[in-house]
Specification:
22 helices; 599 residues; Rossmann fold; six-stranded mixed β-sheet; mainly alpha; 3 domains; two-stranded antiparallel ribbon
Length: 599
């Protein structure tokens, strides 16, 4: 089937829908107060309506349902992108946490991979799945980051969609080309209202839908070129989407070099740096449009050449953009005092910064643990050399297990705990999440595959291994915290009187709160059965008349009484011993006070 003007009718419908729906959505957002207000780390200078992504999504959805021939792959892309649109919409209203958005992206990417849309990686199906999931999540977040100036994300995405559509048409994939033309037309219609000065922003629902739709559509383009070199095939979508990739890389590298968190918002993107060089906002955006168009043209040219020539052209273009990035990185967009303060932070601050992103790390770690537990279950049952049929069963089902188990852990509350305070209650929560995830996984596989050729023992082993891995990963953090030496406080040497629960609580407070300037050296207790025992690495010394000797031997400067059950007579004896040893005596008290006025 050859291309004809009739193939442009769905795009015209999408354009008309977008032009009509965007002002309606804008009026609704203003009425409901869904407004982006100016902030110091954002570029917008006036309150602007959000939810423009709703108009983009509805235009694409309606045009696809009414005018585009439906295919299995098209439904996969649209369904997964719809899920990401829903996640973004929830975030626009409720401002969900980053790890929750990441879980949504992982689930959407796993669904796409499960239905067979993967990059043509030549080093094995497992590697292809991993690279594809990374591609989908990476491009989605790149478009999200690119949405930092009026018309930028929508315009770059429209240009990318046009070139992906051209790639489809060149492959003879006319249905896919129509889908991308519909998508591009919806973006162009939205761009009428989003160009500088913008009256509406797409919001997270728009950026996540647009980014995921582009990334997953690129997989269809790659599938039309099976048999060609992977590097040449992947070069086409990479070049087409080079500007969001370039901007994300630039921001990440420069923020790290400047001592700032890569996830921290700021007016330091490529577009902002171009404005700092003296360009107007409109010209800066149009210059990036030009780069996007150039990279798209190069992508189409690369398809015509052999492997070595194509790779050389890609590398040459990458070198040019790298030089541009180095030049832009030198443009001052940070306050010098802020940069200096960030660089002078101690090395430990890296771990502190990392702790704020711990949920992101947890989610990524758990995805890996789901895969490893399932894989080791097969290895334990069938041996390290899995047969072809068993390996295919593993690969075809692992995306489903990722989706089910990650949802189970999210619902069960696994990501609401704090590792440093992990307890038996947390382990029970993990057990419930693992059991529920395994049970639902079996039901899903029963429904999808009728459980044919599957071994029940695999899922029993998987449940046990995954629980051990999940619990072990959390307990390991607390174990490392206990094993690694705490930073020296350089404070007064303290002996804790009372080796019970209160003494242990006091020790933890001193180790966690370095501002107290205490260095605990041990415990002392009148109970002879506790003598010689160890509490968190500190020895319990005997009491009963030996306090002065212990203070002298351990060079104690202060004694802290932790227990409230010591009678006044014993307190008086301890005070006399401390006075003789010239040691300060203090007592820990825990009081619950009423805050407020008393009437």
């Amino acid at each position: 089937m050859s291309f004809s003007l009739a193939h442009l009718l769905p795009a015209a419908a999408a354009l008309a829908l977008s032009l009509a729906l965007t002002p309606l959505v804008r009026a609704f957002a203003r009425r409901k107060g869904v407004i982006a207000k100016p902030r110091g780390d954002r570029w917008s200078r006036k309150p602007t309506a959000m939810m423009g992504g709703v108009a983009i999504y509805l235009s694409v959805l309606l045009a696809y349902l009414l005018f585009v021939p439906h295919t299995r792959e098209g439904w996969v892309v649209l369904a997964a992108s719809t899920a990401l649109f829903a996640v973004g919409l929830v975030d626009d209203f409720l401002h969900i946490k980053p790890y929750q958005k990441l879980i949504g992206q992982v689930l959407g990417a796993s669904g796409v991979v499960y239905f067979g849309l993967v990059l043509p990686w030549g080093w094995g199906a497992a590697a292809a799945m991993a690279v594809t999931i990374f591609w989908l999540i990476g491009i989605t977040n790149a478009i999200n980051l690119l949405d930092n100036m009026d018309g930028l994300a929508a315009g770059i995405s429209a240009i990318a969609a046009v070139f992906i559509a051209a790639s489809f048409a060149d492959n003879g994939q006319l249905t896919e080309a129509v889908v991308l033309s519909v998508f591009a037309a919806a973006l162009i219609g939205f761009l009428v209202y989003n160009s500088n000065p913008a009256t509406i922003f797409m919001g997270d629902c728009g950026s996540m839908f647009v980014g995921f739709f582009l990334a997953s559509s690129a997989l269809l383009s790659a599938s039309g070129e099976r048999g060609r070199s992977f590097l040449v095939v992947i070069a086409v979508p990479v070049l087409i989407l080079f500007i969001p990739i370039f901007d994300t890389t630039l921001v990440t590298v420069v923020r790290k070099l400047s001592g700032r968190a890569a996830s921290q918002g700021g007016r330091d993107h490529a577009s902002h740096r171009l404005v700092a060089l003296g360009l107007s906002e409109r010209r800066a955006v149009w210059m990036l449009y030009g780069f996007a168009g150039a990279s798209g043209v190069l992508a189409m040219i690369v398809r015509r050449f052999e492997y070595h020539t194509g790779i050389a052209m890609v590398l040459g273009f990458a070198v040019v953009l790298t030089l541009v990035g180095v030049y832009l990185a030198r443009v001052k967009v940070y306050d010098e005092a802020e940069v200096q303060a960030a660089r002078e932070k101690p090395l430990v601050s890296f771990l502190v910064d990392l702790s704020y992103k711990r949920r992101i790390f947890e989610v990524l770690l758990d995805v890996v643990l789901v895969i490893l537990a399932y894989y080791f279950s097969y290895v334990l049952l069938f041996g390290s050399e899995l047969g072809e049929r068993v390996w295919l069963l593993f690969l075809s089902t692992v995306p489903l297990l990722i989706i089910v188990k990650m949802l189970a852990m999210l619902v069960a509350g696994v990501y609401r705990g704090i590792w440093r305070y992990i307890s038996l209650d947390n382990l029970i929560t993990y057990a419930k999440a693992v059991a529920a995830g395994s049970a639902v996984s079996v039901l899903v596989l029963l429904f999808a595959f009728r459980f044919q050729e599957f071994s029940r023992a695999v899922f029993v082993l998987d449940t046990m291994i995954f629980f051990l891995m999940l619990a072990g990963s959390r307990v390991a953090f607390r174990l490392f915290r206990q094993l690694l030496p705490a930073p020296a406080a350089g404070g007064r040497r303290v002996l804790i009187y009372g080796a019970g629960d209160a003494g242990e609580l006091l020790l933890r407070e001193m180790r966690n709160n370095l501002e107290l300037q205490y260095t605990p050296v041990g415990f002392v207790d009148d109970d002879p059965f506790k003598k010689g025992k160890m509490i968190h690495g500190l020895r319990v010394f005997g009491g009963n008349g030996h306090l002065r000797r212990i203070c002298a031997e351990q060079q104690v400067e202060e004694v802290l009484i932790s227990s409230s059950r010591i009678d006044d007579q014993r307190i008086a004896e301890i005070r006399r011993d401390c006075e003789d040893a010239q040691v300060t005596l203090r007592r820990m008290r825990i009081q619950i006070e009423l805050v407020g006025h008393e009437f």
